[in-house]
Inverse folding.
């Protein structure tokens, strides 16, 4: 299978010669009909660079949306596939939690084959929740979540692509029966993730919002976060996987329609995520996991000018108004059935049942506001000596997906040496 969720977990994928040949064919189109490892005439450009044929230069937000809609519409219809591997998902993966793995394995093949994403964007403990999926595509995550929320929960997927919506709607009854639900508990609506009100989504109406490699496709990411904050209930969370970069991209890269669709041009600088999230009202983003990946083709790298990319999963919490951010000793009760003795809030906070763990005020506010609160006991700590500025700086540092990936060793290239040799051999042939 093409790579997708492997990014976050450091799993080495197996890529068949058949897939490599398809990949090379796509790269030929990307690079003006030439391969990136063969010396080319200088007039040949790539991915929006000088001399590229068949690409548009995107000059407005509407042009970006049109290009993305066209890009994924063609892929949903089966007429094209992705040229790079950032936004493609496996059908299932052994590293996923068992209950998610089992649900994903029951999804219809058509839904799975037309689904794109870059991480595991399904949090735990969703029974009875009302969940919104931003950019639901073919509906795979929505269908998985529909099983997890059960008959007492409900799932809404929103997407702007007619082909994807048609595919998702086609299989609602199939998954209702497959999961043993008493009635359909999922629906798909057409709309823009920057304009949820136009799709009829009201204030404070969802417990959880998910999104899988879609926010980067929006030309107005702050508005996406504003809308997510608006429709979330107090104590709700936005749990999403997406692509981030460590620096602003060049103007040429930002205006390439191909690189927008491939989840490169729209990658948000991770520090901007922190800034936007806080400006609209969320707590400081909590990094769940991340993986740095390398784009191994000079064709694309020319426009990226040294920028690094990470596939990262974050949770953004809408704190309840009456919760004060004071430091506490948090004691996990061990009562969350999906994780048992150990509960991982994020990459920096793992709780063992019965063992007190001192956490900063902002982390305490997240725990007390969310659905996890009833599974914890809290003992407030003295606040007189708390340096709030230092606490905030630490929280921002913990949100850095690149620092986390370097610390954990999740910095492998997308392709192994053997796979690169296969690419070279096919290119030479």
């Amino acid at each position: 299978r093409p790579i997708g969720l492997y990014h976050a977990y450091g799993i080495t994928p197996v890529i068949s010669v058949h897939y490599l040949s398809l990949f090379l064919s796509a790269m030929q189109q990307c690079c003006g009909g030439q391969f990136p490892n063969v010396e080319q005439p200088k007039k040949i450009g790539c991915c929006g660079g000088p001399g590229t044929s068949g690409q548009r230069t995107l000059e407005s937000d509407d042009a970006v949306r049109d290009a993305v809609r066209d890009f994924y519409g063609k892929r949903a219809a089966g007429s094209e596939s992705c040229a790079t591997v950032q936004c493609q998902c496996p059908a299932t993966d052994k590293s996923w939690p068992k209950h998610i793995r089992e649900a994903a394995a029951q999804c219809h093949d058509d839904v799975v084959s037309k689904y794109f994403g870059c991480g595991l964007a399904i949090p735990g403990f969703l029974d009875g929740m009302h969940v919104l999926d931003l950019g639901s595509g073919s509906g795979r995550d929505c269908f998985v979540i529909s099983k997890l929320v059960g008959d007492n929960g409900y799932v809404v997927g929103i997407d702007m692509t007619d082909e994807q919506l048609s595919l998702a709607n086609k299989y609602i009854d199939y998954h209702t029966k497959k999961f043993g639900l008493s009635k359909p508990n999922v629906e798909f609506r057409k709309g823009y993730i920057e304009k949820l009100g136009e799709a009829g989504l009201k204030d404070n109406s969802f417990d959880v919002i998910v999104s899988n490699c879609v926010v980067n496709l929006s030309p107005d990411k702050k508005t996406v976060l504003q809308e997510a904050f608006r429709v979330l209930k107090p104590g709700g969370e936005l749990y999403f996987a997406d692509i981030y970069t460590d620096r602003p991209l060049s103007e040429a890269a930002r205006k390439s329609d191909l690189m927008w669709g491939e989840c490169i041009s729209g990658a948000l600088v991770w520090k901007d995520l922190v800034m936007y999230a806080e400006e609209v009202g969320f707590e400081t983003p909590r990094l769940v996991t991340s993986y740095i990946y390398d784009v191994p083709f000079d064709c694309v790298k020319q426009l990226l000018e040294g920028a690094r990319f990470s596939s990262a999963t974050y949770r953004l919490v809408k704190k309840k108004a009456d919760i004060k951010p004071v430091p506490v000793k948090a004691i996990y009760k061990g009562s969350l059935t999906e994780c048992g003795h150990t509960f991982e809030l994020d990459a920096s906070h793992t709780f063992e049942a019965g063992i007190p763990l001192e956490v900063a005020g902002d982390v305490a506010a997240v725990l007390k506001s969310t659905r996890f609160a009833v599974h914890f006991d809290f003992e407030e700590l003295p606040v007189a000596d708390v340096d709030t500025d230092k606490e905030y700086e630490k929280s921002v540092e913990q949100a850095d997906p690149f620092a986390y990936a370097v610390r954990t060793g999740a910095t492998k290239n997308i392709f192994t040496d053997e796979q690169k040799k296969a690419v070279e051999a096919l290119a030479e042939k």
